[in-house]
């Protein structure tokens, strides 16, 4: 199984071209879209989402991960063997939390290059074909590298920000739900938001926070668009009241 995680979105040719290239090279493999609307150009938020989303996934999957605003630069191309499967993508911090969560992970720089390589579409021309070769157990040139040489995220802020807003207006945050108690309040622009186990435990139109299916703290509105009501955007910060 080859799993795609990108910020390409659902319009335009990008997902189709990348999927077609992978399918051509690995015709027996299922290709699954895990996320095609990761926060555009936002490597830090995408890295946090990726680490949470892969936990319930099949352990032998091969992930093609492309949130790559530095495509075409001298940033390295990586493939990483972890307890969650293989990850293929850029050396820009996108895999930082994946690697943190697996001390046994092994990181390789991809040396192999195709005969034709676009300077702006490594997902299609480099990362996708490498994933196909991993799936079919074909050898390709790669070098084991020291994890200490990897690009690190320039994000030293304490947790407490929105990293994704879904189509319902629910706001995924970067807070691990195990770090909060049910009595804790989220404070945003002076509004206190309390915990609820599920949507149906609150009245329609009520704002609340809950533990989403990926283990993140999520701010939501029952049968409404929480982000619009709160005027929250990607990157908005909030505080926790114990």
Proportion of residues in helical segments: 10-25%
Distance between the termini: 43 Å
Rg, alpha carbons: 19 Å
The overall average pLDDT, rounded, is 96
What strand line-up does the widest sheet have? 2-1-3-5-4-6-7
- Largest sheet geometry: 7 strands, mixed
**What's the helix-strand series?**
EHEHEEEHEHEEEEEEEHE
Can you walk me through this structure?
This protein has 242 residues and is α+β, with helices and mostly antiparallel strands. It folds into 2 domains: 2-149, 3-Layer(aba) Sandwich (Rossmann fold), CATH 3.40.50.10790; 162-241, Bacterial fluorinating enzyme like (Elongation Factor Tu (Ef-tu), domain 3). It is 19% helix and 28% strand. The protein has helices spanning 14-25, 43-53, 96-100, 122-135, 226-230, and strands at residues 2-6, 31-35, 61-66, 77-82, 85-90, 106-110, 142-144, 162-165, 171-176, 185-188, 191-193, 207-211, 216-221, 239-241. The strands form 3 sheets. It has a 7-stranded mixed beta sheet, covered by helices on one side. Strands 8-9-13-12 form a 4-stranded antiparallel beta sheet, with helices on one face. Strand 4 (77-82) and strand 5 form a beta hairpin. Helix 1 packs parallel to helix 4 (122-135). The radius of gyration is 19 Å and the shape is elongated. The N and C termini lie far apart (43 Å). 38% of the residues are buried.
């Amino acid at each position: 199984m080859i799993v795609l995680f990108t910020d390409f979105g659902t319009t335009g040719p990008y997902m189709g071209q990348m999927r077609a290239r992978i399918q051509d090279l690995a015709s027996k493999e299922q290709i699954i879209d895990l996320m095609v609307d990761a926060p555009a150009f936002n490597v830090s938020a995408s890295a946090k989402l990726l680490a949470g989303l892969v936990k319930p996934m099949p352990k032998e999957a091969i992930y093609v991960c492309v949130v790559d605003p530095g495509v075409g630069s001298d940033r390295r191309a990586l493939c990483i063997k972890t307890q969650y499967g293989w990850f293929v993508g850029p050396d820009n911090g996108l895999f930082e939390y994946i690697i943190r969560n697996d001390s046994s992970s092994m990181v390789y720089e991809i040396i192999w290059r195709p005969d034709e390589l676009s300077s702006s579409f490594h997902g299609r021309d480099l990362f996708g074909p490498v994933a196909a070769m991993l799936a079919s157990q074909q050898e390709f040139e790669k070098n084991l590298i020291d994890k200490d040489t990897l690009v690190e995220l320039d994000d030293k802020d304490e947790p407490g920000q929105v990293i994704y807003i879904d189509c319902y207006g629910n706001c995924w945050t970067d807070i691990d739900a195990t770090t909060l108690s049910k009595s804790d309040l989220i404070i945003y622009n002076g509004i206190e938001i309390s915990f609820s186990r599920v949507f149906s435990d609150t009245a329609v139109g009520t704002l609340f926070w809950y533990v989403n299916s990926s283990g993140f703290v999520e701010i939501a509105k029952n049968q409404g668009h929480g982000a619009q009501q709160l005027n929250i955007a990607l990157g908005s910060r909030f505080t926790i009241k114990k």
